[in-house]
Design a protein that fits this description.
- The chain is elongated and about 60 Å long.
- By secondary structure, the protein is α+β, with helices and mostly antiparallel strands.
- It has one domain.
- The chain has helices at about 20-25, 25-35, 35-45, 45-50, 50-55, 85-90, 90-100, 120-130, 135-140, 145-160; strands at about 5, 15, 60-65, 75-80, 110-115.
- The protein is built from ten helices and five strands, in the order E-E-H-H-H-H-H-E-E-H-H-E-H-H-H.
- The longest helix is centred in the C-terminal third of the chain and has 16 residues, at about 145-160.
- Helices cover about 50% and strands about 15% of the residues.
């Protein structure tokens, strides 16, 4: 194989087969590298991770990945009145989540209380907007039509779950 300097890309490329990661646009690489899949997998498997009893009174709101200033944090919305119950099972949730992903994904869990009548509103938002609007806008910026179409189909699959 011959080595070649490609002026349109940052790195030198080798003629022949390339890995899939190298063919993706830079914007999509950023989305994938920020571990966006962890939050979606947590939503899909929350009943298993939290357990049947806690599943009815709490749900994950967001996941913040670790950086050089803070550790990875899972924000959980807890129904008012059940905060103590969820606080005692905090370590159990962290252990189950880390075992589910087979690596240490979550190091800290934060809780936020909410009123009971807002449960339906929050669940409807979660099912309709599994992928954030900012990711959809980044997908629309992709110039390659085939990649754009496949990523849009991927978001539809996540919305169905």
């Amino acid at each position: 194989m011959q080595s070649k300097n490609n002026s349109k890309q940052r790195f030198k490329s080798i003629q022949g087969l390339r890995s899939f990661k190298d063919t993706l646009p830079k914007k999509i690489k950023k989305v994938i590298s920020k571990r966006g899949h962890i939050y979606s997998e947590t939503l899909n498997n929350w009943k298993y991770i939290a357990g049947e009893k806690l599943f009815k009174i709490c749900y994950p709101k967001s996941f913040k990945n670790s950086n050089k200033f803070s550790v990875s944090t899972l924000l959980i919305m807890v129904q008012r009145g059940h905060e103590v119950e969820v606080e005692y099972s905090k370590n159990q949730i962290m252990d189950r989540m880390n075992n589910f992903f087979k690596e240490e994904v979550v190091k800290r869990i934060r809780f936020t209380s909410f009123e009971e009548n807002k449960i339906e509103e929050k669940k409807n938002l979660q099912t309709t907007n599994v992928t954030n609007n900012r990711y959809i806008s980044k997908i629309k910026d992709v110039k390659n039509d085939k990649i754009k179409k496949s990523l849009m189909e991927l978001t539809k699959v996540f919305k169905k779950r």
